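ok so I'm stuck.
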Amino acid sequence: MPLHSSNMRKVMPVIAWYVLLALLTIKFFTPFFRFPIPLGYDPGIYRFLFLKYAESFPLLPDLPRWAGEHPPGLFLLAAPLLRIGAPVEWLLGWMWNFVPIVLALALAAEFSRREERAVGIFVLLAAALSLPFYDGFVGMYWKTYAALLFTIFTFGALERRSKLAPLFAFLALIIHHQTGLLLGLTIGSWWLISLRSRPYDRRLWMTGGFLAVIALLSLLLYLPHWTAAVRDPFTSIYKLRGDLAPGGSFPDPVFYLRTTGILLSLGVWGFLLSLRKEKGSLWQLAVLWTLPFIIFRLVFYRRFFLQCDFFLLPFAAIAMQDLWRRLRLPALRAALVVLLIAQGAISFRVAWERVPVINMDTYWAIQSSALEVSTGSAPVIALDNAGAPWLLGWLPERTIGGPGIFDLPGWTKDQWGQFLYGTHEERRLLLFGLPQGTLFVLTPLFTDHYGEYVKGFYGDPCLQKRGEWVMESMCGN
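replied:
not stuck anymore, here's the structure
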């Protein structure tokens, strides 16, 4: 019997790893089989950027101003794969479905090494239960997840004093603004805290110097789009706060407090437990640095909840392990299992409700429109901001516009109102600011939303029907 028990203790962790890996795979691959298109808002933008960087590799492409807001790291890493013939749809399809699974495994492996194997197993469980982690996948936050992966590698390398830490930090910095900023703040404060206890540690000074050089080198890749990629995002941190700050296309933190309260409570408890063992670790500081952005509602503050939740996952795992050891009575352990099942049920139910941003009618209309206007060089403007990014992905060589996004046509909200609801003369004056022959795509999303309210727009003599979903401007400069 003792031999049998010993074998079971060895086998059970392996079984748990495989079961949780299967659970993560089911969760993140269900949309792949359930929907014929990706879930997120940004697939078209990613398709455009992947193709542009691959086309000009190893040089940087000539991009419109709005595209310069996207750091180049991810697209430079993907460019060689596309140059050797891999379809860009792989990066928007099955490869993307694997990314959160790989990220969860990397975090679990790091904490299996750092703490115990059981903590690594609980990290996988926490990742499967996390709704913000799933919503980042829904939004196709490619850059965020890639940067988080290299952040894990950076933190692990720094703690092991590995020479690879600067390389991993460099990759995280050039892949994503927000995660790169969080990485810089975390490492900077960790270095200062370490310096207080080891002011004469030559190795520590060298590490700080290397990381500072890496930070400066990463800025070189941002120089071609300095204003859009660096100046504007960072100045907006103190210019746009509270009600002025755009929250970003991510659910409000209050929503997650309601739906993932159990897991977040475990994360907070595990964080407090970790303070008994150590203070000022990179993982602790990463959590703390997300809080000012969320609490003070700085620019895109909602997106920082993803990073906050992500760095709380290992602390939730620590709390699970601690509670399992403390709760010796079977009834109490059963209560803990019931709580985790309840959290999982809520998380999976909300995950099931996540559907693509556009419906299939709009998707097919965009594809048909792209074929209709594939020849020529006139700008193409989608009349809804959900369809515009998808249209961009299908027409990467054309100038694409949309309401409130990209650089074209650059109208204010009031001007868009005049264009859709206004008189013929108001519409004509706006069209004269665009090249004659500009094409407008009217997706089912647009027609279903506006319907009869834009009858004057449909019958304007400045606009001529060119296809089922396309109208051409007959007025312009």
